[in-house]
């Protein structure tokens, strides 16, 4: 069978006894990076006096997963097979989902162990009382796609959680400051590691604090939801408004993602000739 094993995101002591046992019994280990996994198992072996030798390692990551999947069959999983990403929970902003899907489609048994996860840890650390959140992973580095995703998360009615690298954190804070200077932002640096630190303040205050410091480490960013005023409108509410069709078309296009021209043409098609 296949077992997905979460690995520590910083502190070795966050590995569970169950994960250690599964890794010890593994015969074949698919890894996001074989070098990272071998180093991790060496460290765990030294710390817990466990022999992790005699394992077969195979690379499985976003650039080669399609090729690797073509080489797999049920016989591959007749042994104890494990998948680990470099750190944290597989399939969460990490490879692994296609491997799980392969098992589902081919009726191969699999299991996922619980464990370290930066998203949920940061969520619990943030002090926000909201019970729902959206996860955006890493934003694109630049361009229209990044701007669009940024607008999406700022207009989200749920907490927006994303990852950011130290090289782009200041850029993100500047973008948030320009769009929503008073929006409350929570930042968590290097969760579970020696230099773990958290910040919670308005976007403008965080930008002012960070613009003159050397930013290091990996970051989780949580953005306060957009405050909603009044009731949500649905399409029927807009259709019943006594306003010009062109204005209705613009509102409906904004809600549905259709082009204004397309929606307006639908209005014209309804008018009897």
Automatic annotation (TrEMBL):
Query: Which transformation does this protein catalyse, written as a reaction?
Result: cytidine(1402) in 16S rRNA + S-adenosyl-L-methionine = 2'-O-methylcytidine(1402) in 16S rRNA + S-adenosyl-L-homocysteine + H(+)
Compartment list: Cytoplasm
- Domain annotation Tetrapyrrole methylase: ranges: 1-202
UniProt EC number: 2.1.1.198
**Per its UniProt entry, what is the enzyme's top EC class, as one word?**
transferase
Give GO cellular component annotations, separated by semicolons: cytoplasm
The alphabetical list of record keywords is: Cytoplasm, Methyltransferase, rRNA processing, S-adenosyl-L-methionine, Transferase
Could you tell me which InterPro entries the record lists for this protein? 4pyrrol_Mease, 4pyrrol_Methylase_sf, 4pyrrole_Mease_sub1, 4pyrrole_Mease_sub2, rRNA_ssu_MeTfrase_I, SAM_MeTrfase_RsmI_CS
Q: Which residues form the signal peptide?
A: none
The molecular function GO annotations come to: rRNA (cytosine-2'-O-)-methyltransferase activity
Instruction: Give any Pfam family that matches.
Output: TP_methylase
Superkingdom of the organism of origin: Bacteria
Has the keyword rRNA-binding been applied to this entry?
no
Q: What does this protein do?
A: Catalyzes the 2'-O-methylation of the ribose of cytidine 1402 (C1402) in 16S rRNA.
Q: Which family would the database say this protein is a member of?
A: Belongs to the methyltransferase superfamily. RsmI family.
Name of the protein: Ribosomal RNA small subunit methyltransferase I
**Organism this protein belongs to:** Arcobacter cloacae
The gene name reads rsmI
């Amino acid at each position: 069978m296949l077992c997905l094993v979460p690995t520590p995101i910083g502190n070795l002591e966050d590995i569970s006894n169950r994960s250690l046992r599964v890794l010890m019994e593994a015969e074949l280990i698919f890894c996001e990076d074989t070098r990272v996994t071998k180093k991790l198992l060496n460290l765990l072996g030294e710390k817990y006096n466990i022999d992790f030798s005699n394992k077969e390692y195979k690379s499985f990551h976003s650039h080669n997963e399609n090729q690797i999947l073509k080489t797999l069959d049920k016989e591959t999983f007749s042994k104890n097979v494990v998948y680990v990403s470099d750190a944290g929970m597989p399939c969460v902003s990490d490879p692994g989902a296609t491997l799980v899907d392969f098992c589902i489609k081919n009726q191969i048994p699999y299991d996922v162990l619980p464990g370290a996860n930066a998203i949920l840890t940061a969520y619990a650390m943030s002090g926000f009382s909201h019970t729902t959140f959206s996860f955006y992973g890493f934003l694109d580095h630049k361009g229209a796609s990044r701007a669009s995703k940024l607008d999406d998360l700022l207009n989200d009615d749920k907490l927006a959680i994303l990852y950011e690298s130290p090289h782009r954190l200041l850029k993100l804070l500047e973008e948030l400051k320009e769009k929503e200077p008073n929006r409350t932002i929570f930042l968590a640096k290097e969760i579970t590691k020696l230099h773990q630190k958290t910040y919670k303040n308005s976007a403008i205050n965080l930008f002012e604090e960070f613009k003159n410091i050397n930013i290091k480490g990996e970051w989780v960013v949580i953005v306060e939801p957009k405050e909603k005023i009044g009731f949500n409108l649905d399409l029927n509410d807009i259709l019943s408004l006594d306003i010009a069709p062109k204005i209705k078309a613009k509102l409906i296009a904004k809600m549905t993602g259709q082009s204004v021209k397309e929606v307006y043409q639908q209005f014209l098609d309804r008018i009897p000739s």
